[in-house]
Amino acid sequence: MRPIATSNIGYPAVLASDVEQIYQVILKGSWKVSGCGLGQGAFSSALFMSQYARMSKKVDLCTEIQELFDRGCNSVVSGRTGWLDFADLALVAHKLHEQGFIQIEQGVFFEDIDKLALAAIGQPSQIAGFENSDLGAALYAYRRFNNGAAHFSGPVREFASALACGADPAFVGINRDGNENLRTGLSAPLLFVAAAAEIGLVAKNEGVGGVGKLVDKICENMYGLSNTHFNPGFLTGDLGKAYAMLRAGMCFQRDEWITAALQILIDCAYSILDHGIGTLDMASGASGIALAFHKLYHLIGYDIFRKAASTARWLGLKAGVIIDDCYIDRGASFYHGLAGIGLSTLYWQHNRPEELDDFLWLL
Fold it and tell me: What's the per-residue H, E or C state across the chain?
């Protein structure tokens, strides 16, 4: 099991199973972190520290959390901050506000970003993964709608319906090979449409020609792979692709999509059981994989998914983690570093791992 980083400058190695050690390292480095989004340090550290304080009931970290949140907001750069970062901002701000760690008037706080998001999903220019296209703006809108911003209902409905039936906007990269992961590829629109349908924003009997093309493309590129060739990462690998296919198949009652997805998911599970996992992080490693298979076990009930979740969890608990001071934002982040690993451990210890679903795009 590889650590997150290869050098250790100023921070001791910590066990992924030791939440107290993880808290101490994140607290020690909290004055150095910055960045808007859960791929960087400020919001990630604020999120971890808030949940640590809430669950441990040992410390009052409201001042530190507010400072980290403000630092993340101050890292927003017009024209350079990506839509996934704004979507993360929406989710983190709501969580921290709901739990009393920050005080914001959400309508005022998000007013300018809301206007930009409405424009982006009204005339999208790119549709691919959550990280690298206007689908990130749709994820922002979806999260705002889920947290009470009713003015996003119509725009999200229109956007998701267009994706479902295959009308404009067109999918970017539909003819490219090997670019179907949730982070940057074509399984993200598939999952987004299913999530919108499950909360009533897309009719489940609506035409689904657009997402059908995506399922066909994913299956075409996965055909013939053995489990030694699978990348079981959730946000960056085959596990996320198949999860999106499964949710779409369940939502739109397409048995052939469900069957194809389950075959890939079972192969991913055997890949983990037979060959282990090389990393710890949420995006591609044991922390995210354990949460994804936990969700799958509760959705489907297959014992192989329970075993895969337990194995990923066990492999993660044995490993040590090192943060490189030169890459503190990535090393402390939710997607790639210690905050995500620590939150996974914390929620598993309290038997509430499903509460991280939204942060991991388990929509």
Answer: CCCCCCCCCCCCCEECCCHHHHHHHHHHHCCCCCCCCCCCHHHHHHHHHHHHHHHHCCCCCHHHHHHHHHHHHHCCCCCCCCHHHHHHHHHHHHHHHHCCCCCCCHHHHCHHHHHHHHHHHHCCCCCCCCCCCCHHHHHHHHHHHHCCCHHHHHHHHHHHHHHHHCCCCCCCCCCCCCCCCCCCCCHHHHHHHHHHHHCCCCCCCCCCHHHHHHHHHHHHHHCCCCCCCCCCCCCCCHHHHHHHHHHHHHHHCCHHHHHHHHHHHHHHHHHHHHHCCCCCCCCCCHHHHHHHHHHHHHHHCCHHHHHHHHHHHHHHHHCEECCCHHHHHHHCCCCCCHHHHHHHHHHHHCCCHHHHCHHHCCC
- From the list 353, 356, 339, the residue with the least C-alpha distance to 16 is 339
Hey, what are 170's tokens?
């067109």
Of 198 and 16, the structure prediction assigns the larger pLDDT to 198
Q: What is the pLDDT of residue 3?
A: 40
* CA proximity to 278, closest of 221, 236, 244: 236
Q: Is 291 in contact with 357 (CB distance < 8 Å)?
A: yes
The overall longest dimension of the chain from CA atoms, in Å, is: 57
Question: What percent of the chain clears pLDDT 70, i.e. is strictly above it?
Answer: 90
Q: pLDDT at residue 167 above 70? A: no
How far is the CA of 152 from the CAs of 37, 103, 118, 213, 322, in angstroms? 21, 22, 8, 27, 41
pLDDT tens-digit map of 87-114: 999 999 999 999 999 999 988 999 999 9
Closest CA relative to residue 144, chosen from 116, 103, 185, 102: 116
Whose structure tokens read 């990462």?
233
| pLDDT, mean of residues 212-230 | 73
Average pLDDT of every residue of the chain: 87
- Reported as a pLDDT band with limits 50, 70 and 90, residue 10 is low
Residue 254 has a CB neighbour count (10 Å cut-off) of 18
The mean per-residue pLDDT over the stretch 29-39 comes to: 91
